From TrEMBL:
Keywords: Hydrolase, Metal-binding. This is Sulfatase. CDD domains: sulfatase_like. The keyword Protein transport does not apply. InterPro entries: Alkaline_phosphatase_core_sf, Sulfatase_N. Residues 4-338 form the Sulfatase N-terminal domain. GO terms for molecular function: iduronate-2-sulfatase activity; metal ion binding. One of its GO terms (cellular component) is cytoplasm.
């Protein structure tokens, strides 16, 4: 077996043609759907970036125990399990979070990897004295900084070295993936992961993609929205959205290059292809930009998934409505190579769904560490917040105490205790670290970052836009029962129930 796994970041499902999107032309996603199974009810698990990738690699949810952090010593990793079974894996990525303190153990699970530099705040190019007079006029004040370690400054400097289309990180990322295929497509037993940060903010694309979405904006570069409430003028909002659309068009083009390679060399007959994303992104819907600050609306959590298995040609073009999640990817990749899933995995292989429609799970649990616990059964979504997110009892369970860019502080670690092993830690005790307001994550992607924190129930059949919270004690009780069952299955710690005021 051979497989290619394409992972985008922040790719909005509802903009893609196979899911009814028309605002951006995505003919190559349409081509992909003709060759693969399209999953209609695929959901996230843990968010944001690295928590989502931990779910993908390990096949289990992490957000009830841990925020953003590395793979743990007790974690399973599907590339590692494939290696142990004799299958070679290679990662090509421009996703620089893999190479920070909070992600440093993911890329090393692959047999080899290639890192393409230059996305967002990647500390790539050194410019001690940038031409600030020119640059301060060039970029909008909300995405400008002179601070040496600020992501805005790093991005501004990086973009000074990215001029030609061939120099864009996502373009180079796919080129490196195609180079792997050129050299290795006749070999057997390998998995290639092509992972690009696009269309994650900042929404920067070559000009030929941007020309299709002109807005008349005459101001400085404006392609990086804040995380939070929309407070920009309408013309500024349109410019931000247009730049996102341009990057989605770029992603479609890059996917098309890969599909062309599959067509040219008839890889469809012997190579699996999986295409998905980690989460979506709000572009003004619900009066918000981005993620992390608000309720987990469908635009964020309901994501695309396409799956082609060369052994199942009759599944080309089918659509599947079974409820699936990112935690199912690990078991699916293992199943492609006839490697058994391990006991700690909560996910299920999706390959049987290619043969026939069938239920996979009753519900899907998802969330951010310290935020609401959320559940869907495919009809309803229920988002249950702590009464006071800033005052809840909350602990990180880890043996790898790092945040995104830095280790846990001594102040955080001063309250740490050694907790007994959990069912999924393979007999290993873990640190139980209280979350404090002075933690670097607290106001960034933790409880203090929340702007919305109101428990809500939505009926997706009657209210797909989630504009009218539903009042139904009967449905809320049923969704609470489902939430509790899934928390039990995830070995949720006792305080996870207390913080949202439900019985264990």
């Amino acid at each position: 077996m051979k497989a290619v796994f394409v992972l985008f970041d922040s790719l909005n499902r509802h903009l893609l043609a196979p899911y009814g999107g028309t605002r951006v032309a995505t003919p190559n996603f349409a081509r992909l759907a003709e060759r693969s199974a399209t999953f209609e009810r695929h959901y996230v698990g843990s968010l944001p970036c690295m928590p989502a990738r931990r779910d993908m690699q390990t096949g289990r949810l992490s957000f009830l125990h841990r925020s953003w952090g590395p793979l743990e010593p007790f974690d399973n990793s599907f590339p590692e399990l494939l290696h142990q079974a004799g299958t070679y894996s290679h990662l090509v990525t421009d996703h620089f979070h893999y190479f920070e303190d909070g992600g440093a153990t993911y890329h090393t699970r692959y047999d080899s990897y290639e890192f393409i530099r230059g996305q967002e705040g990647d500390p790539w190019k050194a410019m001690v004295q940038p031409p600030w007079e020119r640059l301060s006029q060039m970029y909008h004040e909300r995405q400008f900084s002179r601070s040496a370690r600020d992501k805005f400054r790093r991005n501004i400097v990086n973009r000074e070295f990215i001029r030609d289309e061939s120099e864009f990180p996502s373009v180079r990322c796919f080129a490196a993936g195609l180079d792997f295929l050129e050299q290795n497509r006749t070999a057997d037993d390998w998995l290639l992961q092509i992972e690009t940060f696009d269309p994650h903010e900042p929404f920067t694309a070559p000009e030929r993609f941007r020309e299709k979405f002109t807005t008349g904006w005459n101001g400085p570069v404006r392609d990086w929205p804040r995380y939070g409430r929309v407070d920009e003028l309408p013309e500024e909002c349109e410019e931000l959205r247009a730049n996102y659309y341009a990057v989605v068009a770029l992603c479609d083009f890059l996917l098309g290059q890969l599909l062309d390679h599959f067509d040219r060399h008839d890889l469809w007959r012997d190579t699996a292809l999986v295409v998905t994303t980690d989460h979506g992104f709000l572009l003004g819907e619900h009066d918000f930009w981005a993620k992390n600050r608000m309720n987990m609306y469908e635009e964020i959590v309901h994501i695309p998934l396409f799956l082609h298995d060369p052994r199942r040609p009759t599944s080309a073009g089918v659509r599947r409505s079974a409820l699936t999640q990112t935690i199912d990817l690990a078991a699916t990749f293992l199943d492609l190579y006839d490697v058994p899933a391990v006991a700690e995995m909560e996910g299920h292989s999706l390959l049987p769904l290619l043969d026939a429609e069938r239920p996979l799970r009753q519900g899907a649990l998802f969330g951010y560490f310290g935020g609401a616990i959320n559940v869907t059964d495919g009809r309803y979504t229920y988002h249950r917040f702590p009464p006071d997110p800033r005052a809840q009892e909350l602990y990180q369970y880890t043996l790898m105490p790092t945040h995104i860019w830095e280790p846990f502080t001594p102040e955080e670690l001063a309250g740490a205790a050694l907790a007994r092993p959990m069912p999924f830690t393979k007999g290993v005790p873990v640190l139980k670290i209280p979350v404090i307001e002075r933690s670097p994550m607290f106001d960034n992607y933790g409880p203090g970052a929340l702007i919305e924190s109101e428990t809500r129930l939505y009926d997706l059949a009657d209210d797909p836009g989630q504009s009218r919270p539903l009042s139904s004690p009967e449905v809320e009780e049923a969704m609470t029962r489902l939430m509790r069952e899934l928390m039990h299955a995830n070995d949720a710690p006792p305080e996870a129930y207390a913080r949202i005021a439900i019985d264990p």
